[in-house]
Automatic annotation (TrEMBL):
Region feature (Disordered): 188-216
UniProt keyword terms in alphabetical order: DNA-binding, Transcription, Transcription regulation
Coiled coil residues, start to end: none
Superkingdom classification of source: Bacteria
SUPFAM superfamilies named in the record: Homeodomain-like (SSF46689)
Name the UniProt record assigns to this protein: Regulatory protein TetR
UniProt KW DNA-binding keyword: yes
GO molecular function: DNA-binding transcription factor activity; transcription cis-regulatory region binding
Length: 216
């Protein structure tokens, strides 16, 4: 097997072991899981730390999520499509958060050598484009562009999934999508005398109603 393929195979075998055992996983365990001799690990990685860095890079690699987004059925109703999108994003985030926790890290790792801001921006833009493509057919039902919708979906999903930010009470994909669709649905022109979107059923502006509640 070529060195790059061997390296990738070892990383793939190591990732679930790290999630289970943390950095204490032994190279012997890794070799057994990868089906290679222990010495083979050190022919493609200079040391165990280098292997752990490669595992982190793999855990944060967006390619699997991007491939899954491309398979979302565009014929489904918008809400169902978005629930699938959020589930894909949440799965990736939980994997990344779990990996950080397993390694005793409290924040994202430093970018790997050779990584630059342009690559990060390209990855973020590719994600926005992928989600925008999922909602593009229903763009007229939203009051923001598909790209802006994708940006907000990413922010809300991240904060609603991160165990510390959500205080241990993560939102479901369905709840996240409902917040997005209600908050970003296109506003229809109200008929004369009917409440506006910014008013409560009695016709009182919501902002004023909230202000009075706070004052009380």
């Amino acid at each position: 097997m070529p060195p790059d393929e061997r390296r990738a195979a070892i990383v793939e075998a190591t990732l679930p072991l790290v999630l289970r055992d943390g950095p204490s996983v032994s190279t012997r365990q890794i070799a057994e899981a990868a089906g290679v001799a222990e010495g083979t690990i050190f022919r493609v990685f200079p040391d165990k730390d280098a292997l752990m860095r490669a595992v982190l890079e793999r855990g944060f690699d967006p390619r699997d999520a991007m491939a899954a987004l491309a398979t979302v059925d565009r014929s489904l109703p918008l809400r169902e499509r978005l629930i699938t999108v959020v589930e894909i994003v949440q799965e990736r985030l939980r994997g990344a958060f779990g990996l950080l926790g397993a390694l005793g890290l409290h924040r994202s790792p430093r970018p790997p050598e050779g990584w630059d801001a342009h690559r990060r921006d390209e990855a973020n833009e590719a994600f926005r484009a992928a989600v925008a493509d999922v909602v593009a057919g229903d763009g007229e039902s939203l009051r923001v562009t598909p790209a802006e919708f994708a940006h907000t979906l990413r922010l809300l999903t991240f904060s609603a999934t991160h165990p510390l930010i959500c205080e241990g009470r993560p939102m479901t994909a369905e709840a996240i999508v409902d917040v997005l669709l209600v908050g970003m649905a296109a506003r229809t022109n109200p008929t004369p005398g009917s409440p506006t979107p910014d008013a409560d059923p009695a016709g009182t502006p919501v902002a004023s109603h909230h202000a009075r509640t706070i004052e009380v």
